[in-house]
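hiii, so i know i said id send this last week but things got crazy w the move. better late than never?? heres the sequnce for the chain we talked about at the cafe, plus the structure i predicted for it. fair warning i was half asleep when i ran it
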Amino acid sequence: YNPRACNSLAMLPGMLARHPHAPATHSQGFMACMYELQEMLKDVTGMKSVSLVPAAGAQGEFAGVAMIRAYHDSRGDTARREIIVPDAAHGTNPATAVMCGYTVREIPTLDDGDVDVEALKQVLGPQTAGIMLTNPSTVGVFERRITEIARLVHEAGGLLYYDGANLNAILGKVRPGDMGFDVIHMNLHKTFSTPHGGGGPGAGPVGVSQRLIPFLPVPMVGFDGHDYFWLTEKECPQTIGKLSAFAGNAGVLLRAYVYARMLGREGMVRVAEYATLNANYLAKRLADAGFELAYPRRRATHEFIITLKRQAKELGITAMDFAKRLLDHGYHAPTTYFPLLVPECFLVEPTETEAMDALDGFVEAMKKIQSEAENTPDVVKTAPHSLPVRRLDDVRAARELDLRWNQGS
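okay and structure toks below
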């Protein structure tokens, strides 16, 4: 959801005309906005300092793990070369760890959706650099033993990384810093209303606990009580450095700043409340309609999972078939087949901005598709029927990459 007010204010002539190389004396208005955004993100996450530099969630993730490595290396603790990742984690988490030179140790998720703490205890040791977690997790439940996990990892000498993908569920309610996390990246393009479609531009700021402040990527904005100024490699000699040419995606950060100011503290709390209310309402209605919840004994957070394994086994209708048919009903299909540990997975995230009639319409569409699966299965198997592009050959696209464009072809 991208309010027009955010776009309008971020496109004020004074903001658009500012060149990235403009001196600080000519950029005080912009820098004031960035400084206030840093402070707001610190407050809402419980972190001690924030850098707005990362230009996407994935880059913020990379920055977070790079800071973990820089911290251990600065202490001469170079034997710590393992990052622990639950099997329900985002796929980017193990990739990020490998990019930062770590070996990934995977631990399982229990049947109730929580991390297997006993398995965690078995892999912790002097080789542990840290653990990457999302809380609420990707299976849509809150990690109930998070403070115990934080204690165990810290006692082993490791650090906790928080993937901010699911921050909507707890915004203004509970802070990752209070759970014991040492570093967090935030997806402003998800939680703070910045443009997401078309692959970006994005913004993935990182926040850190006290021990990681020296390693934050630069530049950041400082304030001496009178003037705003840039914090660079000169002021931050242990920084992991620059991640892009300038200070992040300025236009995207401005949109996030406006959105945060419009919401205020009470508005951020409502985001979490409405996101969670919508998800639990939708989960209950789908369960009543006969769909199987993956974790029926757990209250959903901002998202939940249904498994269509029964439909696949009994009717030959897969999660992908349901997703394609939903397009004919005018609904963007939920994430399918992720997380991988749930068969025929449908990861449903209604968000905080959908009204009840939209949620009810989604339920009716799912019920109609279920009826079609039972009575006219070919209609579902060959969907979508109303779009110019139907089903792509995903396997061929992955195996026979063609990334060239020839003019006139």
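btw The chain has a mean pLDDT of 95. thought thatd interest u
miss u guys!!
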